[in-house]
Amino acid sequence: MRDLEPIFDPKSIAVIGASREPGKIGHVIVKNFLDGGFAGSVYPINPNVDELLGLKCYPTVMDVPSNIDSAVVAVHASLVPGVLKECGEKGITGVVVISGGFSEVGNVALEQELVKVANKYSLNVIGPNCLGVLNPAARNDSIFLPIYKMGRPKVGGISFISQSGAVGGCIIDLAARAGIGMGKFVSYGNAAVVDEVDLLGYLAEDEKTRVIVAYLEGVKRGREFLKTAKEITKHKPIIVLKAGRSKEGVKAAHSHTGSLAGSHEVYQAAFKQAHVIEANRLNELFDFSKMLDYPVCSGGRIAIITNGGGTGVLAVDAVEENGLELAKFSPATERELRKILPDYANAANPLDLVGDADAARYEKALDIVMKDPGVDVVVVIVLFQTVGIDSRVVNVIVKARETGRKPIAVISTGGEYTEFHRRIMDSYGIPTYGSPSDALASVAKFVEYCKK
Amino acid sequence: MRDLEPIFDPKSIAVIGASREPGKIGHVIVKNFLDGGFAGSVYPINPNVDELLGLKCYPTVMDVPSNIDSAVVAVHASLVPGVLKECGEKGITGVVVISGGFSEVGNVALEQELVKVANKYSLNVIGPNCLGVLNPAARNDSIFLPIYKMGRPKVGGISFISQSGAVGGCIIDLAARAGIGMGKFVSYGNAAVVDEVDLLGYLAEDEKTRVIVAYLEGVKRGREFLKTAKEITKHKPIIVLKAGRSKEGVKAAHSHTGSLAGSHEVYQAAFKQAHVIEANRLNELFDFSKMLDYPVCSGGRIAIITNGGGTGVLAVDAVEENGLELAKFSPATERELRKILPDYANAANPLDLVGDADAARYEKALDIVMKDPGVDVVVVIVLFQTVGIDSRVVNVIVKARETGRKPIAVISTGGEYTEFHRRIMDSYGIPTYGSPSDALASVAKFVEYCKK
Asked: Is the reported ipTM for this assembly greater than 0.90?
């Protein structure tokens, strides 16, 4: 197995192709390392420059007086093999090649040359033609997209691998915006050297990764991929969005990355066999991964607590449509609920706390429902538009997540005020959703994974 | 047919149950009329108060010296029939009863009394047990939810009717947040007097309404509903989200509003027959309605323009999965495109403008593709994370929408920077989506509606 630790958690890093021009990729990468607070040493490499953003600049990596763990390469494609050779000579083992201009534009020979150098020096190369690597815990960020355009997520346990840089950029940006904590991220581009199987293997062993999410267009080593995935899903869930599912999509994927996408039916059967969870839409990658970050659940009997009757009805529909079951409250639960509810509310599931519910009523209801042995997962609907609801309900739910022994999913539909509160909950590891259908589809995948 | 104009566009309005206490519904409503800049007269009604938020307060509507078009009622349920009688005597024809405490809590007799009074005076009553009415063009806003919790949308052509107040509140809030322009909104609660058939009939005649969207739990006059809907969909699209689709959902809907929801298969068949477009998820109400706000399209041949290859592949998959067709560019189009593209880009559909595309490249590509007679709808993917993209691309797309003769849908996936730019486009009537699957599902409904 490849040791990719120097790529994800380097103590020192060279940026080859570093530039003084603010618009250039080689400038943005150095600046992002500095702005992001990378604790290790950063060595800008450029033969024509002495100093850059306050750092001493070296002509080649060979000229750097200290050891270097890893390098990020952003030079013209034609220079890459030579640069890799120097990395090899220097003893660097992990390199991220951002540069494009290889097999993806028909330049197969140059990519073969790159592979030859990598093999000669046992270099683990990510890319070429990729977006880079992100490890928020190590403040390692080789992604050249400006921070104001693409946010950086907080530290967490969900790791992403993306064949496409474009989709990868969207993934990071959405995760940052939604308050989802990220383990490792890698956009691996042409996968000339390190491929999806290597990356899965690394993330399987990575203690900080609890859930693995992948955007794939094609898989080069199909058999190994499945064998590896099947082994991993015994311990960690893998969620995959496979592009190139349609006939035209396969063609488009081929012209995009040169991947042989293969028939989707074959992939689907293989995913199923390996207990890989398939997402059908981009959003589902997040929806599912948030829910699957819970360690375990006891079954598929769902309790619904709501302050809006209509949304409760939609959630009940979604329970049934996703093959889940509406829990039946025990007589004790009903008795306890009746004590805390106004007389115009029903002590039944879905539990409508009605429009004037406040945080205190949610707290009591959650406490009672969490204790019912006939309930496996609690779906809490909070409509923040109502007069009785404010930030206190967030504390109540966070507390229930900490002390309760049951997974919670939250549904909150709305604009700015709602989004703000959803982000807080998501950042506390409570998965929130904008609609009942999104929430229950995710709960269903979670329940299915726990059963396996 | 009922004349509901005084309810949606009153020149003068009484707020019965107006209060000096900021927390009370009767206070929030008066304040919202004032803050919102309602141009007509507002008459607070409360026998115990002389003055309220700078307005003279009257004991009853009978005491107001001028004519009153409409009244909003927020008093205890038991007082509502008496208050309606006074409205009738005063010559008011449209009343919105916010107050709950009627059939939804088993108080059927009181609701019957309300109906009796309404019939006697030919009062058009919305509610009881409803959220109110919103008409942004008239600055008529009888909704008691605070503005910081639930935004108010700008003026537009999409009108919403919602049986559920909770779902209605979410609809307004989401529309406001997304920059979607709203025609009329009404939450009609128990529908004791004015029901969904009346509301459809009104919106059918309303010149400012171009698209009708409904959240329904059940329909009281099924036959009339379908007859009316079938007539309307010849001229205006109707999009419906029907809750109570599952067995348990039907039960939940019944206990929520007392609606007899009926089997979903029956509804589905009827919707199909009436060319009503069914949404399966809350988000689809918006996704579909934005796209259907375009007047017309020529067919289902889709061109895709993108600056991210991976997202392009996902869009191609979604084209096929939604029964649409990937357009084949004409030789002339391909020739023109080759002139404006860098050599490493393909002049084919999906058209990948590649990662360094800027607004100028989008402008030229859009111009060429819009002219191809083999293209019916243009799907533009803009990933705002890339270095070359900024607000200028929004101007380019807005201009293409104004001058081009073909519908455009935009896909932009990402966080804050992306959301900001999506809202601008949505507010210019360019439907934007966060993912290829959402966009193409909406385009498919649009194409299907145009074919009928």
From this structure: yes
